[in-house]
Amino acid sequence: MKHAIPALAKNFAVSTYKVLRPQTQTKSMNICTRPCDVFINHRGIDTKRTVAGLLYYHLSRLGLRPFLDSKNMKPGDNLYNKIDTAIHSCKIGVAVFSPRYCESKFCLHELALLMETRKRVIPIFCDVKPSELRVTNLVNGSCSALELQRYEAALQEAKFTVGLTFDCANGDWSEFLQTASDAVLENLIEVEGEKVLDEIDNNQIYLPNDSKKL
């Protein structure tokens, strides 16, 4: 079967995605229990209420299953177990780099695990340049030599991966969300192929940046 692929943002309208409160609650529970499509690696203090949070909601409304720690974890969950399981089961990762990202051992651990499990990772550089990413003294003093090696290797790999850049103060938020969502969908299709196309048909998700049929 051929699949229509009109531009993502142009088809993101209330008339296309009819969301009722009971349905939204059911979908949220399914997202928590099913393997995630996209793991969002981020520094909560910088981007939980902005880039990471908005991207999570945007991808969820499109029918995908993103993982964001503040949305998918509940009291009593073991932090490392829950996150490590989500990373191992995800299809791709999104690494949201921000000015204080490298001050967090948790962020660096997640990034290292994404790279070590050979996940496709989309870097988003928010108010920070790739050249500015380095393990800080704050993390350096609390890690073993092996951990530091993992973190530095992961950052180095991220620096040489084509990603997106965004200026939170002056950037166009709607354009950014469209571009980031398109990048996620395109990478999911490259990684998963026909499986993602079937899910797109089932969930009425439209592929980005093309009006032709596959």
Which regions have little confidence, pLDDT < 50, spanning 5+ residues? 1-32, 210-214
**Form type:** globular
Instruction: Indicate the percent of residues in helices.
Output: 40-55%
* Quaternary form: single chain
Class from secondary-structure proportions: alpha/beta
Q: How many beta-strand elements?
A: 5
Would you list the SSEs in sequence order as H and E? HEHHEHHEHEHHEHH
Which radius of gyration do the C-alpha atoms yield? 17 Å
Question: In CATH terms, what is the architecture?
Answer: 3-Layer(aba) Sandwich
Give the distance, in angstroms, between the N- and C-terminal Cα atoms: 9 Å
| Topology-level CATH name | Rossmann fold
Written account of the structure:
The chain has about 210 residues and is an alpha/beta fold. It has a single domain (about 10-15, about 35-205), classed as Rossmann fold (3-Layer(aba) Sandwich). Helices cover about 50% and strands about 10% of the residues. The protein has 10 helices and 5 strands, in the order H-E-H-H-E-H-H-E-H-E-H-H-E-H-H. The chain has helices spanning about 20-35, 45, 50-60, 70, 80-90, 105-115, 135-140, 145-160, 175-190, 195-205; strands spanning about 40, 65, 90-95, 120-125, 165. It has a 5-stranded parallel sheet with strand order 2-1-3-4-5, sandwiched between helices. Helix 6 packs across helix 8 (about 145-160). The radius of gyration is 17 Å and the shape is globular. Mean pLDDT is about 80; it is low at about 1-30 and about 210-214. InterPro entries: TIR_dom, Toll_tir_struct_dom_sf. It holds the Pfam family TIR_2. This is TMV resistance protein N. It comes from Morus notabilis.
